[in-house]
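Side project, low priority. Logging it here so it doesn't get lost.
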Amino acid sequence: MPLPRDIVAFFALAAAAAPALAETEIDLDKIVLPAGFGIEVFANDVPDARSLVIGDEGTVFVGTRTAGNVYAIPTNAGHGGSWRAAGPAVTIATDMNMPNGVAWRKGSLYVAEINRILRYDGIEDALAQPPEPVVVSEDFPGVRHHGWKYIAFGPDDKLYVPVGAPCNICDQEGFAEITRINPDGSGKEVFARGVRNTVGFTWHPESGDMWFTDNGRDWMGDDMPPCELNRASGPGQHFGYPHCHGTDVTDPDFGAGRTCGEFTAPVQDLGPHVAPLGLKFYTGEAFPQGYRGQVFIAEHGSWNREEPIGYRITLVRLEGNEATAYETFAEGWLHDGKSWGRPVDLAVLDDGSMLVSDDQAGVVYRIFYQG
């Protein structure tokens, strides 16, 4: 059975958009940051670096999408100054099925493949000889299109697991959702619907609301529709897909008889096809006051736009739950329409600096403020 046209086009164009790792030259002098900020390579031996999570002892765990590996970067955990890698990255799992998502809970690393969730117990004390994983759940579809998962534990101690749409645009039961399960895999329930493909979410440090990015649909033109930054104040909300995109864009195929007012609107419309992935509230104290409590977003970059955009880190400034500005924080991974790096995920360290993964360059960066 042949693949649908939009799936074939996705993989063909996405592959063309990202040169092979060996061809990538890391040039941090090209990265433009606000005055007083700096960027350095934290680890450069993590091919296809995607989702990030920090263990109790400071180990940085890194998921991948196409490489099929999970890495662990040992660190000094900030002892004696700023965070530094304390040795080369260790590959703790190989030959996995798009292990994009990694999460941490009580000494155990959770890893999301397309159709299942695994758990590695006591992993920080066994990086050289990782234990056999425990299968937490195998209750997810095995569809590869938007099947790679970002996972994280919420303040309710439940593991949140998205199930992306198995297409560019369609309406299929059991997809385009964010689900949640108990740490042992039981109690699966749908938390949010109408979410095309989120590859990043986090929780407000005060309210506990979930905030997440969502990638807009393709083939509506270069400038339509926007990608999204959303807020879920509780379970049961519907965020529009496939009927509505962004704040007020009705879908030409699935929008008939529907209005965008029926659905929960984004906090902020993001750029069209910028592919927003990981996001974090800045909870550290090293950055100036104006950055604290604000939302940073890793924009992976467009593969389906005549003039590519994204390939940067953006900042959404907030007053309460309202967005007041959407601006670029770090850029320079894209030059003359060609990229040498693609930001994927973010992590705020205890020293107030911020890690950024880059799956094209196979690098994890550290952004810091030096005044």
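Brief comment: Residues 13-43+275-371 form one domain.
Revisit when time allows.
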